[in-house]
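User: Hi! I'm working on a homework problem where we have to compare a predicted structure to a textbook description. Could you give me the structure for the chain below?
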Amino acid sequence: MPVFVYTVHDLGGKESFGTITADTPAQGRERLRERGLRIQTFASSRPSSAKSAWRIGLSRRRNEQVAEVARYLALLLRAGVTITDALEVITRRRTGRLTLVLKNVRESVANGEALADALARHPLWFGPLFVSAVRMGQLSGNLDEALTELAEHLRASQNLRNQITAALTYPLIVSVVGLGVVLFLMTFVIPQLLSVLEASGRPLPASTTFLKSLSDLILNHGMLGLLILIPLAGASAALVRRPAIRRMIEGVVFRIPTLGPLLQKSLVAHFAQHMSLLLKTGISFVEAVQSVAPLTRSVLLSDELTELSRVVESGSDIAPALENSRVFPPVVMHLMAVGQDSGELPAMFAELRLRYEAEVRLAITRFTTMLEPLLIVVLASAVGFVVFACLMPILEATRAIA
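Assistant: Happy to help. Predicted structure tokens:
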């Protein structure tokens, strides 16, 4: 059922923020009005794809804020402060959406609701992984330790994402700037220069003729091409979201040298981070795998985790379930099997997490080391061809005069 985020005022004018599930937005608004609440904002909890860049930035801020709250809450609980008092201290003299969320959580806990259930009502801030860890922490009586692990998990997970993002940022900037330079030359510099060369009446070299045809194509049909490209890109994005297409694309990408191993290692690192956190809080292996499977963005990994949970739940071993894995390297499968036999899966996943975080850093270094000079060569070749095509008729004219 869809989840909607709302901001409302009660009869006393007090503002509150939360989420509600409903089949339609109209049904959700009607339920809020039945409670006597005045709606200020009401929107789906899933942002549109057009705001993906903003969503990434917001998610990063949310992770940082939630990690900070988890650390403070763990410290206060360890000092003997009750949950409601700890939430009161954290929200004191603070503003923002998260503060409203925490006040809402505090009211729910004060009314007898479990902390995990209160957090689960705000999925934009506290995901299933966070809620599961808190729930197990409460059941085991180690909530402060669970919150400390959550804060560390969020920090490590965000650091890994930041490293991958930083590795892709430089090539992206270089590509955009290079493409902009080439387009500027093709639309402003080349037409003026070639008009002078054509006026001389001399036949143009083949490279210059090709460059002129390309420039004319961009000038005369560039807008039409853009109008075709935009819906084509939208249709392609919709097609890529289909699981069958994504499986095929991922299978191809994983075979690309350097890039494929980087993506596989990052998936294994994220998986190890999640599993390490959940197993430390006391969740069983099958439940942990079932919790992690929907969180991964890889369809192939999600399929393998679903099959892994089914096989292990039926009483089989880990190794046979992952024998034909396209994501997990043999050493990871072997370590998981050893951890299952020895009963040390939490420690094994903690070690695996550290190892693969280091592997991702090394893979990122290799990827950027290979990609940066390759981009420079490609862009330099493109600009060099433009310059060569422009200079050729000038040089030929100079030789003819001489």
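For your comparison, note the following. The beta strands are 3-9, 15-21, 38-44. Residues 274 and 292 are 7 Å apart (CA to CA). Good luck with the assignment!
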